[in-house]
Amino acid sequence: MPEKKRININDAPKWFRALYVLAPIAGLLLISLQLDNDFYFIYKTGEHIVKEGFPTTDFLSMHSSMHIIAQQWLSAVIYYFIYSKLGTVGAIGFVMICYGLFCVLMHKLTRLITDNLFIASVFSFVADVLAAPMFEKTRPQAITMLLILLALYLLESFVKKGRIIYLCGLPLISLALINLHAAMWAMLFVFAAPYGVAAIPFKFKKIKQEPCCSFVKLAVCGIICFAVGFINPYGFEAMKYITTSFGSKEINKLVIEMQSTSLADAWGIVLFGVLAAFVCAAIFAKKKAFTTRFVLLFAGTTLMALMNAKSIAYFIVGGIPAFAYMFKDAKIMLSVDERKRNNKEKKKLTALIIMFVVMIGVLAGTVIHQANNTETAENQADAEYKALDKIIEILDKEDKDDVVLFASFNQGQYLEFNGYHPYIDGRAELFLKKNNGEFDYLKEYNDIRGGRLYYKDFVDKYHFTYLIVDDTPGYLSTSLEHDDDYELVYDSEYAQLFRLKDAKQ
């Protein structure tokens, strides 16, 4: 009897391809249905720009004289209009649309890189699931990730097809990034760098590199992209914003996602788990494909992800598709009769099964952990907002102009959303002296939380009439409880409200 026909998955019918493109959208189930805490200052920024124009001094906190730039101004305006018309549903729906486009584009990029439907589907699915819960929130980053991914797709298309039309989209992405999320504008050049290196002909003894594409065309495109960066309301100041906003030890103390990635953090476990799975896959893959641009892209984004948890997003965008290239020549055959598979084919299948089992284990753990974390975080956030709502009811009995308010880093933006001007909010980098040109408020905030600054000197300096306290160390709340000048007027598990006794008169 003749051997039954075997079907190469890479030649599967269109319905099979559509199934793999649509499957990652299951990641939508992992996206939070709650507004991100940063959304509140983003919305107020958009509102201010629409009604008052571009700010150069702060309009949200109590430090009205400090210099600022609205580096996310266009994202803020977009979110302002969406929320004004459609509310929370509209804002979250917009993020879901961005995520859906991310899924489709990730699949197209990995397919373009590997020219292998099966491998592209597996790796794009991994990237989509990891991206959903981490960064697809009501922040500008949802748009930024999509634009960086699009830039990679255009660069890879230029390499594969050689048509300059693909490079024409990069200046438009540069223009979009500098106005949507200026702090991340430089990432466009970081992700393009491996392509620039790979385009340089190189020969050293027996080592030789053939250029992947025209270096001159890439260089000209890069110059245009840089020039386009000046088209923003703040000029060169916005373009160099990343240099004054990252690497600060004061921000790293306060913002968990800016700290080094480690196994002590849940997403650190996920990152190291994925890397371990990749190592296993590389060991079992007998025929490996390498090229300069993907080696650099994978190594660079992995290093970034290890440096801080926030950069895991860029490992997902660039590192995972780059690693998929290694398996571009893998071919899996589906045989109707299991006995017809030869030994070599069985070994390939075994190796891939091991890789997929590890991958599925990591993803299953991620999904379960994130589902639990999301529910817990959302429940806690709801409780915290309810506590703040009760505090706002008390504050609303006063004239807002007479309220001199201290609130924590995570509370400030919600109070600003409700019309108050607190001491600090979640725009961490704006409270650094090198950005605001006035004073290092972020260091002062960390010092008062950590007990390195005497509380009386602090409250007397600003003449606070109200203080909302949730500091974990407990230094400020304990001090105020024993201060005869202040009285506790609201107390809950999530926040305390102290009032200056003279303020009642």
Strand-helix topology:
Layout lengths: L5 E3 L5 H9 L16 H14 L20 H42 L2 H19 L5 H21 L7 H12 L6 H12 L3 E3 L2 E3 L5 H14 L7 H4 L1 H5 L3 H6 L11 H19 L7 H16 L4 H13 L8 E3 L7 H53 L9 E2 L5 H6 L15 H4 L4 H10 L4 H8 L3 E4 L5 H7 L4 E6 L4 E5 L5
Parallel strand pairs: 5-6
Antiparallel strand pairs: 1-4, 2-3, 6-8, 7-8
Could you list some keywords that capture this structure?
about 500 residues; disordered N terminus; about 60% helix; mainly alpha; two-stranded antiparallel ribbon; 20 helices; 8 strands; single chain; four-stranded mixed β-sheet
In words, what does this structure look like?
By secondary structure, the protein is mostly helical. 58% of the residues lie in helices and 6% in strands. It contains 20 helices and eight strands. A four-stranded mixed sheet has the order 5-6-8-7, covered by helices on one side. Helix 4 packs antiparallel against helix 14 (312-324) and helix 5 (141-161) packs parallel to helix 7. The N and C termini lie far apart (100 Å).
Compact summary:
With 505 residues, the chain is mostly helical.
